[in-house]
Inverse folding.
């Protein structure tokens, strides 16, 4: 009887091979699960750190420079985030106030509408003194605007579009000055990239000054995330995908390079410091080249000697103001309210 | 006698192996892929829940949104690990039973599918390691 039943069982050697195979597969399953869990867990942690930036208070208001201004609040486009800002009327040589030509000022990462490091408030005041009204506002998650994840332009472009909507159809902060006849934008670093993304969607923005914008955020993140997290660079793709799962932000789609040509025929003035160690000036070269692929492109570039990241205004001072004012005057035409 | 008996067992085993129908292999593969299938289902449900929570809490502000998304993803990760571990243990037990019953083709197919599962689970890490990142400008 034994002789009959035993052939159905595998040989002892086969049994050992079978057991060995099971152990090998079990080990593979355990190791892969552990490694991937660790990778996913750390990626989620990095993601939460990557998007949260503590909000910094405003260091001053336009009043510090003797300028008139009014506080404004307006919603972003699409998701209606309530954004805070200043509307500074332009001042004509005869002392008359004007809002005919309005510049939307877009600040960079980890700062606000006053942005001392890039001189945003000082430049806003300079532009207002040259007859351009200025709308400077805190993008979501910065200054006095509500907390929000830092999306490096992905969501912030809605804030710029909200600023345009506010100028076109919101309650005018100075009703006696009427609505702007021409709207243009100035942006620095992340603000410049965001402004380019918004301008491609909004024809009301008639001219753009882009100071040290990035052409594509992914290479910068792949360089910066490992530095910040003290982790190997292969965690970056996981962290960026974790950001997408947690916050719906697709950093890989933040590529002004892809849309900059669609801004034509509206003029773009690219400015970049040649000593920029954070966003190398090759980004400007790439952006300008891409913008010029449009048949009716109007592109100007200015490589500022000796300027580090977002420092062109400080390095060039009055020359910077004069160049930007000349660009806006050409794009928007002269102010006619004095006539 | 012993050697003759072993030879007889071997030839019988080989016969069983040859006699294994394609159905046997398919059944083994499907059984081995159950942990991967469950893993994918739980991951997809977790991601959908996180997206839903983000939408539902969009008016409550960033911190509420973040808290909800982190809780859902962390809970999803834990549930995924538990479901995956249980499914893998069950699959391996099933393989052991098949091996004892001499169902070599079926057990081999299941083990191959489980090995493939391990590879797929490791794939995100492998891709992150192997694929080139964007060249710095």
């Amino acid at each position: 009887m034994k002789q009959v039943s035993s052939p159905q069982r595998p040989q002892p050697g086969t049994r050992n091979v079978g057991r060995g195979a099971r152990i090998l597969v079990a080990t593979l399953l355990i190791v892969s699960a552990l490694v991937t869990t660790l990778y996913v867990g750390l990626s989620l942690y990095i993601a939460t750190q990557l998007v949260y930036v503590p909000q910094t208070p405003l260091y001053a208001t336009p009043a510090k420079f003797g300028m008139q201004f009014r506080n404004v609040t307006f919603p972003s486009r699409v998701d209606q985030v309530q954004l805070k800002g200043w509307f500074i009327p332009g001042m004509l040589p005869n002392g008359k106030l004007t809002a005919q030509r309005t510049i939307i000022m877009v600040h960079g990462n980890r700062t606000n509408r006053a942005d001392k490091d890039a001189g945003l408030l000082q430049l806003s005041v300079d532009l207002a003194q040259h007859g351009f009204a200025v709308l400077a506002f805190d993008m979501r998650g910065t200054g006095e605007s509500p907390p929000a994840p830092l999306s490096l332009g992905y969501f912030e472009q809605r804030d710029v579009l909200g600023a345009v909507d506010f100028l076109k159809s919101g309650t005018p902060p100075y009703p006696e000055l009427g609505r702007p006849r021409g709207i243009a934008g100035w942006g620095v670093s992340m603000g410049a990239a965001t402004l380019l993304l918004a301008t491609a969607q909004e024809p009301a923005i008639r001219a753009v000054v882009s100071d040290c914008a990035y052409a594509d955020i992914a290479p910068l993140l792949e360089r910066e995330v490992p530095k910040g997290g003290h982790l190997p660079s292969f965690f970056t793709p996981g962290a960026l995908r974790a950001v997408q799962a947690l916050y719906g932000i697709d950093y890989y789609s933040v590529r002004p390079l892809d849309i900059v040509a669609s801004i034509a025929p509206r003029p773009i003035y690219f400015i970049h410091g040649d000593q920029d160690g954070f966003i190398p000036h090759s980004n400007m070269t790439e952006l300008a080249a891409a913008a010029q692929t449009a048949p009716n492109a109007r592109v100007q570039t200015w490589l500022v000697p000796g300027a580090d990241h977002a420092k062109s205004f400080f390095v060039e001072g009055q020359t910077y103001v004069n160049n930007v004012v000349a660009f806006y005057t050409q794009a928007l035409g002269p102010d006619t309210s004095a006539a | 006698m012993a050697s003759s008996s072993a030879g007889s067992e071997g030839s019988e085993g080989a016969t069983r192996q040859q006699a294994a129908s394609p159905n046997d292999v398919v059944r083994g593969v499907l059984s081995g892929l159950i942990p991967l299938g469950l893993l994918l289902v739980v991951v997809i449900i977790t991601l959908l829940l996180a997206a839903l929570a983000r939408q539902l809490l969009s008016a409550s502000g960033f911190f509420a949104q973040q808290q909800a998304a982190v809780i859902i993803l962390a809970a999803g990760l834990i549930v995924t690990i538990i479901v995956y571990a249980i499914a893998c243990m069950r699959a391996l037990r099933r393989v052991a039973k098949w091996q004892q019953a001499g169902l070599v083709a079926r057990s081999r197919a299941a083990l191959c599918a489980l090995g493939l599962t391990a590879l797929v689970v490791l794939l995100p890490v492998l891709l992150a390691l192997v694929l080139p990142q964007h060249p710095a400008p």
